[in-house]
Write a structure and sequence with these properties.
The complex is a heterodimer of chains A (361) and B (361). With 361 residues, chain A is mostly helical. Chain A contains 16 helices and no strands. In chain B, the strands form 3 sheets. Chain B has an 8-stranded mixed beta sheet. The radius of gyration of chain B is 26 Å and the shape is globular. Classes of the chains: A mainly alpha (361), B alpha/beta (361).
Chain lengths: 361, 361
């Protein structure tokens, strides 16, 4: 499928898209989950998970190159229109559920840390109005907000690690590799979820002006996020003692409590507000993918789907309870793992076999 | 077009109504808690005191101290809220004091509340009061001087430029949760109308066990902190007195396992500056730098060993020898270590280097 050049983006921008697809609310709390079994060796698990994601990016590029289009094209080529569209529909639902999980996670943070009495639907609508504005501007606007989220908050947020590092106990990380192989595997598995997000490539591939040369930027972005997550986990591990970390829900935010400026006693307020931009970029990207896919499947206007999905999100955010929220997070994690790390490689193999047969026949 | 304007107005109204739901705290309509004190009142009751400043137009601010009984710290807060003009907020909390009576029973419950509240920073000071915390906060003299800020700044300055080792809420939680380490906190006392730092409270888990006084604090700080600045007087064999100012010191811990039991070697290096040197002969004598260095090193070795013996006798480990052992050995067993600790062999080697002798030789 050939896209209009006007809608496409330059190769180097892929770095920012992939970066923003990977960084969300997960980074604020993943330290505890990965350390649950592997203890303070878990940072090695993050690096290993990063390597797997690199491999996954390579597989996705191979698959999309062969089909020369997005995942909807791949599906209709492999399974035909009806069954193919059905599979694509499931993936679009996944994108939407992922955006919902991020949104609910961030709303919970705002409620716990800043405004305990504020109803969810207000926060949800405020964020979604911003997201609607980005997504209705088309893919280039979504890329724009991704770029912004990297330049403005992210770089500042990395610099902030200086404060907790001043109080770090690096000897906490010793002895290295003191856990069994299975424990490490568990850390890899939980890091995979926080590093997830690269699967958005399956939708925005046709929008890349030069897919061949954008490859290296995608790999570079994954390298960056892997290092970011590794750094973040090491900072947390050296700052907290192991039993202390087990009790903290958002280690990254609790770290920030150490910052005290003479004119600003509580820095977290600023930190969480800055995080809004990062979260908006991620939600915009996921919702764009979802609505774009639905448009390709049902051939209606993208904006209609966007409004419908946003409204459902607002309603769910108000009605959902703790139990369902946990279930949602669990299912999104499971879906991510099975669809993208199990199903997509199989799809690549099927497509390759089909091509071979066609050539031979 | 008219339709769009209508939607725009609708969204604006919707958002503004949302903003009115966001709770606000106007600075002269709240009571900012700056210090809290907790004492044991018997029969499961805690006596809590809260101090907050009162600002009035054209008048110097005064400090209000309210005291109430309750079973939990938040119950105390709500009791006090009932008798104050404005609601109490905890975002500006600077210092939490524990009376000796409560510290002996354990402070975990209260510290957990401080840690749980997202509005409370992690570098607030906590200290044990030798006596009654509420009495100390109530001192008449500090009515106009703001007692909580006084205590906080006094402790801060002593940690930065004197013999008190670094501690705050975060270090307490770290040490409390670290396997193989017990926490220590500053110990302050009300002496007539003054507040004075008298040493350190050594805790076992969360219970106050015994104090170490200011004359031992220098040695203790050398053993636990990376960099210190503080004065200490040494009396040499021939009656000469030297006062050294520490410029930089670092303790290096080595663990060797002999016959299944750990043996510790502490290498302590001090870079110091001579501040005062007096001789009993009442006349100026030439300085024998090497001799002084050697003699002071021996004294420090002896002193540290005495301190560590005392810790071992009480079964507390504020230096964190257990944590150091755990870093070095893969098969660390906490129960076994507890058995080993009182009889563990510890060697201390001190090297004192007098870098400067002031402007005279």
């Amino acid at each position: 499928m050939q896209m209009n050049k006007r809608h496409q983006v330059s190769p180097y921008l892929v770095f920012f898209i992939v970066y923003s697809s990977q960084v969300g609310v997960g980074i604020l709390g993943f330290q505890r989950t990965i350390a649950a079994k592997a203890g303070y060796d878990a940072w090695i698990g993050v690096i290993l998970a990063g390597c797997l994601v690199q491999l996954f990016i390579w597989i996705m590029f191979k698959l999309l190159e062969k089909a020369d289009g997005d995942i909807v094209d791949v599906h209709s080529k492999v399974f035909g229109n009806i069954i193919g569209n059905f599979f694509s529909f499931i993936i679009m639902i996944y994108y939407w559920l992922a955006s919902l999980s991020v949104l609910l996670g961030f709303i919970e943070i705002i409620q716990v840390w800043m405004f305990p009495t504020l109803p969810s639907w207000i926060l949800c609508s405020i964020i979604l109005v911003l997201v609607y504005y980005c997504v209705s501007g088309g893919f280039r606007a979504v890329v724009g907000i991704s770029f912004l989220s990297f330049i403005y908050p992210q770089i500042i947020l990395i610099v902030l690690y200086i404060f907790p590092l001043k109080a770090a106990h690096f000897s906490n990380l010793l002895p290295i590799m003191n856990h069994s192989f299975l424990d490490m595997l568990d850390a890899v598995k939980s890091s995979m979820y926080t590093l997830a997000g690269t699967e958005t490539l399956l939708m925005f591939y046709p929008f890349l002006r030069d897919p061949k040369s954008s490859k290296k930027f995608a790999h570079l972005a994954v390298l960056f996020t892997t290092l970011l997550y590794t750094l973040s986990s090491i900072v947390s591990f050296t700052y907290y003692s192991e039993r202390q970390l087990k009790e903290i829900i958002w280690p990254e935010l609790t770290l920030i409590k150490i910052i005290r400026l003479s004119y600003l006693e509580r820095f977290e307020y600023l930190y969480i507000s800055m995080y809004l931009i990062i979260v908006t970029a991620l939600i915009a990207l996921l919702l764009w993918c979802s609505t774009r896919g639905l448009k390709r499947i049902f051939k209606k206007k993208q904006k209609n789907y966007l409004i419908i999905l946003s409204l459902i999100s607002v309603v769910i955010s108000q009605l959902i309870n703790e139990q369902w929220k946990e279930a949602l997070d669990k299912y999104v994690t499971q879906m991510n793992l099975w669809i993208f790390y199990g199903y997509i490689p199989i799809l690549l193999i099927i497509l390759t076999i089909l091509r071979r047969r066609k050539q031979n026949g | 077009m008219a339709n769009r304007t209508l939607i725009g107005i609708g969204v604006t109204i919707f958002l503004l109504s949302g903003c009115s739901l966001i709770p606000t705290n106007i600075v002269n309509q709240i009571n900012m808690t700056q210090g809290v004190g907790y004492d044991w009142a018997g029969k499961k009751m805690i006596k809590g005191s809260i101090t907050y400043p009162i600002y009035k137009k054209d008048q110097p601010s005064t400090t209000e101290v309210k005291i109430s009984l309750g079973e939990t710290s938040k119950e105390i807060r709500s009791n006090i809220n009932n008798e104050s003009r404005y609601p109490l907020v905890s975002g500006q909390l600077r210092v939490a004091l524990f009376g000796k009576s409560l510290a002996k029973k354990g402070i975990t419950d209260v510290v957990d509340t401080l840690n749980r509240d997202p509005a409370i920073g992690s570098i607030i000071q906590i200290a044990v009061v030798d006596g009654d915390a509420s009495e100390l906060l109530k001192i008449e003299k500090f009515k106009t001087e703001n007692v909580s800020l006084f205590v906080q700044e006094m402790l801060d300055q002593s940690m930065k430029s004197d013999n008190l080792p670094e501690s705050n809420l975060q270090t307490y939680l770290f040490q409390y949760n670290q396997i193989g380490q017990d926490p220590y906190l500053p110990l302050i006392k009300q002496i007539e109308d003054n507040i004075k730092i008298i040493g350190l409270a050594i805790l076992k888990d969360d219970r106050y066990v015994f104090p170490i006084f200011m004359e031992d604090a220098f040695t203790f700080k050398c053993l636990v902190d990376k960099y210190i600045q503080g004065l200490q007087r040494f009396t040499l064999e021939n009656g000469e007195r030297a006062v050294l100012d520490n410029l930089h010191s670092k303790a290096h811990y080595q663990v060797k396992i002999k016959k299944g039991r750990p043996e510790f070697t502490i290498n302590l290096k001090l870079k110091t500056r001579l501040q005062e040197f007096t001789s009993p002969k009442k006349k100026r004598v030439a300085l024998d730098k090497k001799k002084i260095q050697k003699e002071i090193a021996e004294q420090l070795e002896e002193h540290s060993l005495k301190l560590i013996k005392k810790f071992q006798k009480h079964g507390v480990d504020p230096i964190g020898l257990g944590a150091k052992y755990r870093e070095q050995s893969r098969g660390f067993n906490e129960k076994k270590w507890r058995r080993f600790y009182p009889t563990a062999k510890v060697h201390v080697h001190v090297k004192v280097n007098i870098k400067q002798t002031g402007v005279v030789d």
